[in-house]
Specification:
six-stranded parallel sheet, alpha/beta, homotetramer, 12 helices, globular, 45% helix, two-stranded parallel sheet, TIM Barrel
């Protein structure tokens, strides 16, 4: 499984909660079933948009189980099993592996950010990759972790036989080019935000794990399809059209916004878990208008 | 217990690990016994310096249990039971309460930092304080969380009957003064870094939860004692003398540095847990020199 | 002149100083003559790479004069005439206009950055544009100013009849797309860093003011030429090849690095002005290696 | 003059402009005359609160001249003569010296902030101090420059015979303590913000260059007087009372706020120069309320 080559769009799946804050596994499973009919390459369970930091281990494993059971058979299943400690990351990743996950997306540890220098990150990912039963992908998301993985770290880790790729959620295209210049060709360098999706494709990136793909999977997929068919203008047009939606469901309104957009577009958004706050009515209205303007509803 | 008035020095206790990364409860208990003979007002178990983010629940509860059992009877026992989700924070805090902890130090949730605005933080701490069986203290540590609690939040929360204080680890003295101007007198505003200890005392602060108190508890206590006796110069002199040690065991060398200093000064430092890295030999030597210069060894 | 449509590559020209720190106008003029033979669309005198903040007014005007006199006749001449005050900016811009400059690149005022909100920036650029005799371009360079022009500001100002474009030096491609979504088609949105050059072209950007164009003008131009001919792969290859050079002569070694690269590649680099420091020998050697690897020498 | 020992409060004097944006020298001179009757140790002309970056050289020299002519004879006159280039800083400082300024407060150059490392700053201040006819003080104000002078730089420069002190406007008290640990006793370490005034006094600081001293000079002076008389509580009370005023006239409302407070309290505020914006009516009202609450009106 180590030479997985990832191509296409993967949603970092939202986790619907019910009103009292419990995970609504039923709604989650229904989402996966619906996404099975969309043009997606796989699923990421337990990403940042899954409110993973709010889930306990039991909930995490149950979500993984449902994903594995419900996903269309040819689809890649990734799970975000990074914990702060090396030990716990290895343990959780191996539990995920047993449940049938294909590869693990491992967040950079970040609480002691000042100490997570290149040496520490290289050691961490090496320790994890050496001790887990599935391939590892690096997850770089400074927006949440306030840590940015350096090209030096990417260069070193991309040589590890069990580290097969990276999700870079910075949207920093020049940095992406820098990463490209230091990795072997087989290394799966993916973007982690739809805001960088079209530019990344023009640079040769083949896959994106895109929050926007929760509510607009086919539009995300079409950007890639049209680009690869040689229809750059068409691809760019779709990208530019859904770009403001992506802004709304990430930077501006966050997960509550993404979930509301999902609800409006036929998926199960559900509630967010506290301490996240639900959207106010005027925020909901704004999202609606943005979706309409983007011709998504 | 709600009208706890905290006065004195409290160490955010380190967690010694053994070489293979397991918590060494024996070494931990020995530390508590040793600190029992020092001039301390209480203990914080599961603070940032405890590598709490690297501990699983079982380990956390065991450390709490040992602290409660081992601590000298008149000492205040605080536990850091903040989790990212409101739900998990309440659950863990109530487990800690059952084990005999006197009050909970609750970290600001921070992963979705962009959404942790005043409204969300006020809601979070209110929800927690409403649902836990022991008093709550706010823990503000932007160095790790990249979130800074505003004076507005402090003002609102300091009125909650079950929120009795705050540990502010910023070392930002003007901000401390701002906080003082909005809180009721009974609210326990504590500093969370020895670098601000003497200045905070001159402003009327009565307690400090100080990493440095792990390895130099009595020096920390003497700063306060001398100041309160009217010996400002003596207090200032001790403060200035140990100031560079505090820099070394926090900003410069972090927890590994703090643990090494503990080992040199007669406490059990133990290993750090991965992904934290042990000190290199030259770093150890520098810490030694700093301790010697500060007349601690 | 207001409907200038800018297309192609423009170097933000370096200012060679001699050893005692005086501007070496002769070396400067020689550079312009050499660039006249390169595939460039115009010149920016008094950009950030010109060490403009180190120049007094007399020097600035002399450099403008030489540029106007020396530049090939069909080339666009831009001058960076932004000062901190509205008044001084207007005065200097009109002096530049009298000397024959075609348009002014106006930096955001930034010293009182906390006060340079959208309202202040809109007012500032409007006041300037209303009172100067040549068209205005907005210059956004947070790396130096710690201010980032918002899409809201760009949207408003792009409607001003005398504000004809913008140099965005952030390299932030998603932000560029956001800007594109709010400007009229005639507005000249240019990138200000070669690190974003190819991706920007794929998004429809037509011009770049690129530090790298000081020392590698034709490679910068070829990226665009090949892209527009439909040779995306060729364009991307050149872009990727010179990308590390751009890193070296901007982020890593700064203006001293850029000047040294210019000297190695046949232009007159000259000395930097103090307080900038000259490169150390090992830094010079590294730049040389980077140029060789990029096949520029 | 090199062994100047500075003690007391110094206002970084505002520059009143008239409605069309010209310096109103008359209003400025009247302010100095009024301040002459206040309990001040001296004057800083051309500080950050003087809108210095908006002044041309002629205006600067005229303001210096008026200050020298108008100031009470025993008062220390400082001028902010730092420019971005070493050369221009030396030239302007020597012009100021000729006009009778006692010492120069030299801002860290900052436009190319990434290059202003310890080596560059040490070289810069050394070059300046070596070539000017009056003593030099370092001006550290990261709020505007985004550069923070390190303890290492302070240590080195404090040994230069012609560098006699520093204005640290960070309000960072632990950093102040760090600076104290590396400087000779004769070095004038001053705070540059009233928010740190009382804590700094408790640490042995002897002088403050305080924006607040423009509108509330005597309250600032009383904090020091009472503290030195042994009335710490009284000193602290005044400090705490005017603290919110300082917040308002610096962080919240900036120079426009400071000027409005000056106008309300009997000094000539005048207009700000563009691009700074005047206060809105509701902002003016808020400042008024804050002054009333602080018992300044």
């Amino acid at each position: 499984m180590t030479n997985i080559q990832i191509k296409g769009v993967i949603p970092p799946m939202i986790t619907p909660f019910n009103e009292n804050g419990d995970v609504d596994y039923q709604l989650f499973a229904e989402n996966v079933e619906k996404w099975n009919k969309d043009n997606l390459a796989g699923y990421l369970v337990l990403g940042s948009n899954s409110e993973t930091v709010y889930l306990n281990e039991e909930e995490k494993l149950e979500l993984i189980k449902i994903t594995v059971e419900t996903a269309k058979k040819d689809r890649l299943i990734l799970a975000g099993t990074g914990m702060e400690s090396t030990k716990e990351t290895i343990k959780l990743t191996n539990k995920a592996a047993k449940l049938g996950v294909h590869a693990a997306l491992i967040l950079t540890p970040f609480y002691y950010g000042g100490k997570m220098n290149d040496e520490a990150l290289i050691q961490y990912f090496t320790d994890v990759a050496d001790n887990v039963d599935i391939p590892v992908l690096i997850y770089n998301v400074p927006k949440f972790t306030h840590i940015n993985v350096s090209a030096n770290v990417v260069e070193k880790l991309s040589r590890h036989p069990n580290i097969i790729g990276m999700k870079d959620s910075t949207g920093d295209i020049p940095q992406l080019v820098k990463f490209q210049s230091v990795i072997p060709e087989s290394f799966n360098l993916m973007v982690g935000t739809a805001s960088a999706w079209y530019p990344a494709l023009t640079l040769g990136v083949k896959a994106g794990i895109l929050a926007l793909a929760n509510c607009a999977p086919n539009e995300c997929a079409m950007v890639q399809e049209e680009f690869e068919k040689g229809n750059a203008d068409k691809a760019k047009e779709i990208y530019a059209r859904v770009f403001p939606v992506n802004q709304a469901v990430t930077a501006t309104y966050g997960i509550a916004g993404l979930k509301y957009a999902c609800s409006l577009l036929g998926y199960n958004g559900g509630y967010v878990r506290k301490p996240l706050l639900e959207l106010k009515d005027e925020e909901k209205e704004k999202i609606k208008q943005i979706l309409i303007k983007a011709e998504l509803m």
